[in-house]
Design goal:
Organism: Streptomyces shenzhenensis
Radius of gyration: 36 Å
Structural class: alpha/beta
Shape: elongated
Low-confidence stretches: 45-67
CATH architecture of the largest domain: 3-Layer(aba) Sandwich
Protein name: DUF3105 domain-containing protein
Number of domains: 2
């Protein structure tokens, strides 16, 4: 009787021991799986982080490249007469693609091989920067205005442009003031068409000393 009890007790202990060994084995396997999963997750985060950083870097580089593709470097300085003059380099390469300029409207930089007609041409819709910059290279003055400009001023400036070879005019909504005049490397904001600075700007910069290609044509280009 006692022997049977002892045998039963021993068997039960053996089963318990076996169950404990199995449980410890499962725990080890679970720990290994957890560690392995953690390694995979960490590796994924590292790789993802690298990819994200690279992507952000590529995006930043791309934006930087866009900002530089005008080929310009420098900054504006403002004279006593209010004329802002670009101090630095203005590139003059011919490019087929669109250009991001560091100023609006642009006063120089890489530009389209075809200039915008600027023989007293008045455009009633926006023109392409790249063609207008080529006109500035030929010595033109570019008059631009926003929707905030007074109609009387727009009409008066249009009349002046029509009477002036090597000038052009177009709307330009991205500029900082309602009325602006631009030449190669120079820019002026005026309050009205009868501002004396308008006549001075025209007489100084239409085929002025700043012109990179004096005498180059303002006809035979493109109308837009």
């Amino acid at each position: 009787m006692g022997s049977a009890k002892n045998n039963s007790s021993a068997a039960r202990k053996a089963r318990i021991a076996e169950m404990q060994r199995a449980e410890r084995a499962r725990e080890r396997r679970n720990r290994l799986l957890t560690v392995a999963a953690s390694v995979v997750v960490v590796a994924g985060l590292v790789v993802g982080g690298v990819v994200l950083v690279n992507a952000q870097s590529d995006s930043t580089n791309s934006a930087s490249d866009d900002a530089k593709n005008a080929g310009d470097s420098g900054r504006f300085t403002t004279g006593a007469d209010g004329v802002r003059t670009w101090k630095g380099d203005l590139a003059r390469n011919h490019v087929e693609k669109s250009v991001t300029y560091p100023m609006q409207p642009p006063v120089g930089g890489n530009h389209n091989p075809v200039w915008l007609n600027c023989n007293g041409d008045v455009y009633t819709s926006a023109v392409k920067n790249e063609n207008a910059v080529h006109s500035l290279e030929h010595g033109a003055v570019w008059v631009t205005y926003t929707a905030a400009a007074q109609k009387a001023d727009v009409d008066a400036l249009a009349a002046k442009v029509k009477q002036t070879p090597y000038s052009l005019m177009s709307p330009y909504e991205d500029q900082a003031a309602p009325l602006m005049l631009s030449a190669w490397g120079h820019q002026l904001t005026v309050k009205s068409a009868d501002d004396p600075a308008v006549a001075t700007f025209f007489s100084t910069y239409v085929q002025g000393e700043q012109t990179p290609e004096p005498g180059a044509s303002c006809t035979g280009g493109t109308m837009k």
